[in-house]
Design goal:
76 residues, mainly alpha, single chain
Length: 76
């Protein structure tokens, strides 16, 4: 049997981390300002503070998913 670097747990952790990052980018999205119209919502707390923190936590979680060492199976 071939031993892979990642197991099922690693892939689940990576998927959860990617989902958290996507949620962070969705929180950052919204309408912007254009010539002739200034939209003050570009400086909202959600877009300036919350979304980058959520993305950062997602990247940290993905790093944990990569670094997580699978438990060794007992030989039979």
């Amino acid at each position: 049997m071939r031993d892979f670097a990642f197991n099922k747990t690693n892939y689940i952790l990576l998927a959860v981390g990617m989902a958290v990052i996507i949620v962070g980018f969705i929180l950052m999205s919204g309408s912007g300002s254009y010539e002739g119209h200034f939209d003050p919502s570009i400086f909202s707390v959600r877009r300036i503070k919350v979304a980058p923190i959520v993305c950062f936590l997602g990247f940290i979680f993905m790093t944990y998913g990569i670094m997580h060492k699978p438990k060794e199976k007992a030989d039979k």
